[in-house]
């Protein structure tokens, strides 16, 4: 192995873990996964500290949303692309998983057909559409979870970035893409269940989805996927690719003048982000038990952007915080006043924009900076070697 290759390998293996924020985030995430598992498995159901299967499922849903938010923060926070279409990548990954889960039902469906899903039998279809073939195999379905949204992002990104579409125009185009896909998936003849979508799932890779153990396994798998996705994004933003992305965000014309093929960097990061969004959708579907065209809704894509803005963009961990806080608030609020949730979300966004323009993560950074300033101005404070050399 050459010195250059070895140093590059060491960079990708060690650099993402070198930042304290990454270490803290991964530590908190792993501790949360362990705590939920312990309270679900080891604590008796009659104990107030016991976490039931429904709550575990709910936490898994939050974590899948957190992974989706990280994907959006990668392109918006570090590349400057405000994508209002990541709900489409999320939904496509979810549909790929849903197609696999539907094929696993077999003859146990309502109509007892060994091959066709129930909705196809109801619509009097006599054969399986060509694009459903292969989804009875787990490896093929899991590959399509990553490939389908990545290919869509590759084609869309190639055309958009090559044409140098930027700013609000790119945001509008991404939203138009999502809306067009939503209308298409609502049609029964598309072969994706129409308005009702795909549901009534029974098992995944042989495990009963109604089992508490399977639900816990999906929760843990989502947590691990979030950790790996976070590490991947952190590795990207701390590399040369990330530095060029930030330069493109701040001064695209100047970055082009320096000789960088900006559209190549944009396309790569956009495709990686879409892949993570698709993975989030695939982990979401077996935990909620349904996937339908509402996931393509432009409102959902806008909501994802609000998660990132509230948590603090260009931090990655802020996106996770925002996704979990907003969706927890949504769970509580919709249980009391479901019709007023969108108004509450808008009010929350306005308040954070006014009082916390850099999001919750920005508040953490501000408090940390104030603490450091107080320590350095304290006459009794003993200066560290790092502070003395600064």
Quick recap of the structure?
It is a multi-pass membrane protein. InterPro entries: ABC_transp_permease (IPR001851), ABC_transptr_urea_perm_UrtC (IPR017778), LivM-like (IPR043428). This protein has 390 residues and is mostly helical.
What is the topological layout?
Blueprint: H1 3-18, H2 20-41, H3 53-77, H4 86-103, H5 118-122, H6 138-162, H7 167-185, E1 198-199, E2 203-204, E3 207-208, H8 212-237, H9 240-250, H10 252-257, H11 262-288, E4 290-291, H12 298-311, H13 317-336, H14 341-355, H15 359-377, H16 385-389
Antiparallel strand pairs: 1-4, 2-3
How many structural domains can be distinguished in the coordinates?
Answer: 1
**Biggest sheet, in brief?**
2 strands, antiparallel
Order of helices and strands: HHHHHHHEEEHHHHEHHHHH
Spatially, the strands of the biggest sheet line up as: 1-4
Low-confidence stretches: 1-6
Helicity level: over 70%
Mean of residue pLDDT values: 90
**Strand runs, count:** 4
Instruction: Give me the number of helical elements.
Output: 16
Give the termini separation.
38 Å
Say what oligomer this is. Answer: single chain
Strand content is under 5%
User: What structural category do the secondary elements indicate?
Assistant: mainly alpha
What does the radius of gyration come to?
23 Å
The coarse silhouette is: globular
Transmembrane segments: 24-42, 62-95, 138-161, 168-186, 216-237, 265-284, 304-328, 340-364
Pfam family, one: BPD_transp_2
Main location: membrane
GO molecular function: branched-chain amino acid transmembrane transporter activity
